[in-house]
Fold each of these.
Amino acid sequence: MTLQSILDEIRKRPGTGEVIPVIDPVTEDQITEFTDCGEEAVNEAVARARAAFESGVWHGLPGRERAKIMWRIADLMDQYADDLAELDSLNTGMPLAQAKMIVPTCAEFFRYYAGWCTKINGTAHEVQMTGGISGAYADMHAYTLKEPYGVVGLIFPWNGPVFNACAKLAPALAAGCSTVVKPAEETPLSALLLDRIITEAGVPDGVVNLLTGYGHTAGAALTAHPDVDKIAFTGSTEVGKQIVQASAGNLKKVMLELGGKSPVLIYDDADLNMAILMASMGIFVHSGQGCVCGSRIFVQRGVYDQVTEGIATVANSLKLGGPKEEGSNIGPLISHKQLTRVMGFIDEGKQDGVEVVTGGHRLDRRGYFIHPTVLTNVDPGMRLYQQEIFGPVVTITPFDDDDEAVAMANDTTYGLAATAWTNNLSRAHRIAKRLQAGTVTLNCQLVFDHSVPFGGYKQSGWGHEFGREGIEAYMQTKSVWAQL
Ligand code: NAD
C-alpha cells in the first residue's frame, strides 16, 4: 500500500528536465520514473528554506520542543520501519533482512540528536588582557553562542538511502537549520516516505525540502546557489572536489564524507578464523558498496596462504540474489553503470597479470551481480589498487613487518578507515597511531555508533558526522564581548 503510493507519488512530482527511470538492480526492470526537478525547483526549495529559517519557526523553538518533534520522527520511523526497509531493499537490491536491521538504527539518529537539542551551549570567558587595546576597559567578559548555519543542502549517495538521509537530517534539524535534501537519482524512493514522516511529526513547512533530480542538474544548482549557507555532502571524492569548486561563489561552508580504499592488516597472531570471516564480510557485504569496506587486505607472510584461501572460501560461500530469493545474503550492484565500471577494473587487472583467486566475473543471470572477487599478485601502481572500486573486489598482499605493513596501508590518497587484526595489544595501539585514517578499528570491522565521530583523513573528507562533532557541523560560533 505505502510502497505503491510512493511509486505513484514520485511519478507525479513536478519537474522540467529529463525523465529518470528508477531501475530494480535485481531484475533490471523499471520500477517507476520521475522527472528531473530542474533548476527552478531548486530555487523554490532554497527560497522556502530561507523563509522558514528567517521566520525562526524551527530554530526559534525551545530546544525541548524541537527534541519532542524529533522523537516523534523516530517513533513514526519505527511505525513505518517495514515500509522504509522495503523501499530501500527494492531500490538497492539489498537483502530485506539487512534493510530491516538498518532502519531502526536510522530512527535512532533522531533520538540521539534530540538529546543534543537541549545541550547546545557556548562557553563563558574571563578576559585576561590587561594591556593593549582590551586593557583600555577595566572589566570585561566574553562568551560564545552556538548558532545554526541557516540553510543547508544535504546531498547523499545511493548505497544506504535511509541511513544517509538520517545521518544528515537529524543533526541538521537538532542544530536548528533549514534543509534542502537531494537523495541520489538512483534511490529517491525512501526519501519520499521520510518526507511524509517528517511532515506528520510536525516539522514546520519549509524546514525540510526534498529535491528529486540528477546530481549534475539539481545537485549542482543547489551547490552553486548563493543563498545556501552550507553543503553537507556524502559521495565520491571526484564529486566532492566539484562541490568545493561550485561552493566558492558565496564561499559556503562544506562538509565532505568521501570515498575510501581502506586497508586491513592481518597479523599471524590474530584470531584468524574471526579475522578471515570479518575481513571477508568487511568487503563483500552489500557487494562492496560501503564507504568503509576494506578493499586492500595485507597479511603477514607466514599466514598469507591460509588467509587468502580462507577469504576465497567465504567469498564462494556467499549466496548472491535478490531480496525475494531464498537464502540470498548479498545483493547486486546498484546500476549497469556501476557494473561496467567494476568489471572495467577487473578486466584491466587481468590484462595486467593479477591472479584471480576467485570471482572476477558477472553472474550469468539477470541483475547487476558480480561474484565476490579475490585478487592477488597486484602491483601497487595498478589503478585497481589505487582507486576506489566500490564493488565486491579485494586485493590481498603479503607483508613481513610493521613498517612494511604501515607503509603499504598508508600508500593511498584516501584515509577513511583502517583495521588491524592482532592479539598483541601494544602493537595494535602502536599501529592505530600510525595508520592515516579517520577511523581505525582493532580486531573488529563495520562498527558504528551514533556517538562516535566519523570523518575522513586525506582525500576522504572534510569534517565529521555523528557524536558532538556531528551537530557542531551544523552550527557556527559567535563570540560576544561586553564591557561590564
Ligand atoms: P556520487 O559522488 O556520484 O554521488 C553522490 C551524490 O552527489 C548523489 O546524490 C548525486 O546525485 C550527487 N551529485 C553528483 N554530481 C553532483 C554535482 N556535480 N553536484 C552536486 N551533487 C552531485 O557518489 P555515488 O557514486 O552515488 O556514491 C558512491 C560514493 O559515495 C563512493 O565514493 C563512496 O565511498 C561514497 N560514500 C562515502 C561515505 C562516507 O561517509 N565517507 C558514505 C557512503 C558513500
Amino acid sequence: MRDVVVVGGGLAGYRFAQSLRESGYDGKLTIVCDEEHRPYDRPPLSKQLLAGTYTEEQCALPGDAPEVTWVFGRRAARLDRDLRTLVLDDGAELPYDGLLIATGRRARAWQGNLPARGVHTLRDLADTASFRASIGEDARVVIIGAGFIGCEVAATLRKEGLDVTVVDVAPYPMPVMGAEIGARAARIHESHGVRFRLGRGVSEVQGDDRVTGVLLDSGELLEATVVLIAVGSVPNSEWLGGSGIAMERGVVTCDATCSVLDEDGNVVDGVMAAGDVAAWPHHHGEGAVCIEHWSNARDMADLAARNILLEAEARWPMAELASVPTFWSDQYDVKIKSAGFLRAADRWTIVSEDPEKPSLLVEGHRGDELVGAVAFNMNRSIINYHRALAAPVSG
Ligand code: FAD
C-alpha cells in the first residue's frame, strides 16, 4: 500500500495518521477535511474554551504532527469503490489504495422554525466562538437537551453566574447513565443554580429576528436571550450514499477489526472507518454499535492504522486492543468517568455514595451480567472495573 487517504481531520483521522506513520508507513498520506483549521480536540469546546480558560491553540490535539498532505476546506462528495477514487466537492479526484472514513458527526438540527439570531449548536470551534459572543452579561440562557453537552455547558455558564435553564423530554439529565445517576446529577446542577424543566417538550423557539423565549408543551414560556440546541448529533455520511457501503441510520458498519463492510456483509477492500461515524460489534451490544466518545475514536483509529496494512484475515480485533469503552465529563468539581457499554444496562445499583464530597459509584447490569460502571470523583474505582468488563478472551 502506497497511497492512503483519510476523510475527516478530527481526532480519529489525525490519530490514524499519527499511528500509521509511527508504524513505519512511508507512502503517500493525505487528509481531506472540510474544516479550515488544523485538527483540534472537541471536549474543551463545552468546557475550558467556552469558559475562556483555554485559547483555541490550547485545544490542539496531542502528539507530534505526522507528515501528511492536508486538503483543508474541501468536502468528500462521493466514493467510487470500483475506481478506488474519492471525489471532492470541487470535482477533484483522489485515487487511493487505502481509505479511512473518519467524518464524525454534526449537531442535530432543530426540526422547526428558529429566529435568525441567538440560537446555537455546539460542535466545532466556530460554534463555541459564536455562542460565547452572543452571551451578554445579563444573558438568560435556555439549553434544549440535558445530555452531556447540554449539562457541561450549563455547568460552565453557571460557574460564571449566568441564568441557565435546561429543558429535556427525558425525566432526568444524561439518561444513558440511568435514573439513579440522573437524579443525583440533577441535584448537583440544581445546587449550583441550574433550573430544570424535565419531562417537558419544546413547542416553539420564539422571536422574530432575535430569540426571545422558549415555549414549553406545558404552556410555560421561558424568557431567553440565548438558546443552545443540544439534542444529539447525526453522522456525516451522506457522501457515502450509493457506494454500497453498509450503514445503519447513517452510521458506517465495521466488523470487529474496523474494516468497513458492504451491503452484503463483505469486507470492502482497503477501506476502514473510525470514530463517531462508525460502529463495531461490541460484546455487550446487539450488532455493531456506535460509541460517540473520545477514547473510542482514538482506539478505533489506532487499530485501523495497525490493520490497514494487513490482509483481512490477519487483522486484529478491537477486543485485543480496547474492548471497554470509557468516557469522562467535567461538571463543576465533579469528574464523571465511566467504563463499559452503558446502553446495555437494564438495572443500576449504587455501590457507594457520599453526597457531601460528592462521590458516587454505580454499576450497570443486564440481567446478572455486569455491563458498565459510572463514578463521580472516584477515578481509581473505575479503573478496577476494566478487567471485569473486558471481552472474553477467545481460544
Ligand atoms: P470529529 O471530531 O467530529 O471529526 C470529524 C471531522 O470530519 C470534522 O472535522 C468534520 O468537519 C470533518 N468532515 C465531516 N464531513 C466531511 C466530509 N464530507 N469531507 C471532509 N471532512 C468532513 N468525549 C468524551 O469522551 N469526553 C468529553 O468530555 C467529550 N466532550 C465533548 C464536547 C463536545 C462539545 C463535543 C462536540 C464532543 C465531545 N466529546 C467528548 C466527543 C468526542 O469529542 C468525539 O467522540 C470525537 O471528537 C470523535 O472524533 P471523530 O474524529 O470521529 O469526529
Amino acid sequence: MHWTKSVVTTVVLCAIGVSAGAPAVFGCPIHDEVMGGKPQTSASPSPSQAAQSQPTGPEWWRHAVIYEIYPRSFQDSDGDGVGDIKGITARLDYLHDLGIDAIWITPMYPSPGIDYGYDISDYTAIDPEYGTMADFDNLVVEAKKRNIRVIMDYVINHTSDQHKWFLESRSSRDNPKRDWYIWRDGKGETATDKGRPPNNWQSWFGHSAWQWDEKTRQYYYHYFYVQQPDLNWRNPEVHAAMDGVLDFWMKRGVAGFRIDAVSRLYEDPNLRDDPYLPGRNAYGDRNIQHKYTDDLPEVHDVLKEVRRVVDKYPGDPVLVTEADEPNVQALSKMYGNGDEVQLPMDFQIADVNELSAPRFRELFNEIESNSAHGQPEYFFSNHDQPRQWDRYGDGVHNDQIAKLMAVLELTTRGTPQMYYGEELGMRTTDPVRVEDVHDPIGKLGWPKEKGRDGERTPMQWDSSAEAGFSTATKPWLPIPSSSAKYSVEAESKDPNSILNTYKRLLALRKSELALRDGVQLSVGNDPDVFAYLRKTGDETVFVLLNMSSRERTLSFKPDELQGGGISRLTPLYSSTPTATSISPAHIVLPPFAALVAKVQ
Ligand code: NOJ
Ligand code: MG
C-alpha cells in the first residue's frame, strides 16, 4: 500500500512496482565505498560522543531524531514470536549508541489486532501480548536514563468495534453512547430491506465506508476497516473521553504523541457524495476523491485542543501528525499559529519515489519557505509503505543509494524520523502466497495490493535463523533472507556499512552546529546533483548528493557558496574516498555519491 492521498497515484505505483520511479540505471561502475581510514572518517565524532549531547530543554524536538518502533517486530523477549515491551527495553542501549533521541512506538494497547493495533479496544491499558503496564513504566524509566523520550500513538479517528464504547453504541438506538459514533439510515431502507448505504463514501481499505448493523437497522461509518468504526468528533463527550486518554499517558511520563489519521476526523454533515476519479483501485472500486471525508477545517480545532491538553505537562510535549497533505500550503496549516502541532509528517518528500534532484530541490525549497515557518519532519519509510531501500534503490546500487538517502534524511533542516531497520538497509519482503498474508488489505487486494507485511518483518539483529529477534522458530512474520548479510551484528563489523554510515551521520548532526541549527539553502540547479548549504552564524556545511548513475564534476564560484571568501571544502563525510581538502571549483562526484563538507 502506498500511503498517498491520491487514489490514482496509489494504484499506479502499486501496479507497476514500488521502485517504479527509480531511474533504470545499469552498466555503470560500482564504486568502492571503502574510505580506507581516510581523514574524513576520523573527522566525525564517535557515536558515543554524540550520544552524550542528546537534546534537552525547550524545543528538544527540533534537534531530535525520532525512531519508529513497530513493537510486534522489534524484539521478542518471551519466545512467542511477537515483539514486546521488555524486548524494546532490552534494546535501548543499541538505540542510545545509534544516537537517536526519541522512540515513537506504534500502538501497544489492547486490540483484536485486525489492523495490528490500530483497532484499539482500550486506550488506557497495555495489550498482554506486549506485556504489562509495569513493563511500560519500566521502559519509560530506562529510556529516560539514556535520554530517550517515548512518543505514543494516539489513534483518534476510530476505535475497535470491540471497544466498550462501540459495544454500547451498537446495543440500541437510544443508548447514551449511540452518538459517539456515526450512525445513519440507509437510502431507501424499509422495515424489511436495508436499502443502500447513505452515500458513496469509500473506505481507504476498499469498498463502502458504511457497514449495515442488523440489530439496530442502521449503517455505521468506518474510514478504515469495518472493525474500525469512526468516532463522532462532533460529540463533546468524545472530546472529553479522548482528552482523558492524553492525560493518562502524559502522567506516565511520555514525551508526546504521533496522532494517527488526523485529516479523517470529520465528515460532511450533509453526507454529500464524493466525486469520482477515472479508473479503479486495487480493490476494484471506482477511484474517488475523499473530498467530504478528509481535511475538513474542524480538524484544526481538535489539534488545538490536543495541544492545550498536553501543554499542561512539563517538558515541551511534542505532537506529530500523520496527515498525508497534498502540498506545502495544506501541510503548513498543521502548525496553526504555533498552537497545533510541531511536527507534521511530510509525505510529499517521503513519496518523491524517484532519485530526482530537481524534484527534491523543488520540494525542499517550498518547505523552507513555508508560511508558518514550521519545523519539517522528514521520513522515507514507515509501517505503511514499502521500505526506502527498494523504493529508492535502482536494483543495482541499492546500498549506495540507501547511504545517499541517509545523508538526505539526516543533513536537511528538519526532524528526521527513522523506521526500525532502515539503518541496516532492511528491504521490503512481501509475502509470496496470499495464504501467508496477515494485513487484511493484502488479502482483499491480492495480487495488486499485497498489504503491508513486507515492511513489517522482524528486526535483523544477527545472522542466526531467527535473526536474534526471537527464540521462536516461527516468528509472526518470516525472517527475510537478507538478514544473513544485513544485520546489526554483521554491519557493526564493517566501517562502511549502512549502519555505520547512519551512526556517523547521526553523530555529525549533533556535533556540527550548522547541521543542528542552520537554515537550508539550495545551491545551483543541476539536473543530477541536489546541493544545499546549511548555515548558521559563521558555520557553513555544504551537502552534495549525486542522484544519478553518472560521474559528475561540478564547479562553484565562491560567491555561490557563502557570499564570497571561501576557498576550501573539508569533508566531514564522503561516501567515496576523497581528498582531505577540496576546491569548490572542482568537485568530482562519482555515481550516487554523497559529500558533506565544511565550508572554510
Ligand atoms: C494509519 C496507520 O499508520 C495505519 O497503519 C493504520 O492502518 C491506519 N492509520 C488506520 O489506523
Ligand atoms: Mg513476545
